[in-house]
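Example record

One chain of 231 residues, shown exactly as stored in the release files.
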Amino acid sequence: MANKYDHIQELIGLWQEFEKATMKPDFLSFGDWLKNNSHQENRSRDRAEKMDKESNVPDIGDEIAALPVKQQLISLIARLARLQDFYAKKFFEGLPINSLLEFSFLFSMNKSTSLKKKEIIGLHLVEYSTGIDILNRLIRLQLVIESRDDLDKRSKRLKITSEGKRILIEALIRMNKINDLFFMEYSDEDLEKLLPSLTLLENHHKKIFGKSGSNSGFKILQLLKTIDEVT
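Predicted structure tokens for this chain:
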């Protein structure tokens, strides 16, 4: 059982602290000091409890680090891609385009006088149906126009419009800001060291995808056979 004079002893200790902190101690000021000190202690305790709760939240980095190295790389690349797409949606607000793929399609069409639908879809490694949806949207927005191919009447060629070029210029300005944000902790020299390995990996899978990956009927067994052929 606590001693009935414990609170008095605690109060004496607090008065000693108050005397050290105050030039002219008096009971009225002591009361204000006790109240302020109590609030500070509560805030400190709340902060400590919050930090303790946050420290118990699982860190996805720890989960990834526990995976085999190949799975770690895949997970990190996928997460980075999602982050970049998230940034793009924020930075592209107010523009008719709202995704990196739409930006990339416009960028490619600006570099080429005209491209077939299948060519641009294959260029950006997306399924045919997804690519068609993107192109149809760009056409509806009047950022791209389509015309019949003179040599192949069954095909249609795509060309960026003057409005599409205007939107692309604005998007390019914003993309530079996205890139600065994305790599703000790294110098160009640091990033250049990553390029050879990533380019080699991308080229390897571009060959696989180029054979049949854009086909919606692409099966995993076909993929495994393709890997054997490429390697």
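Notes: Residues 1-32 form one domain.
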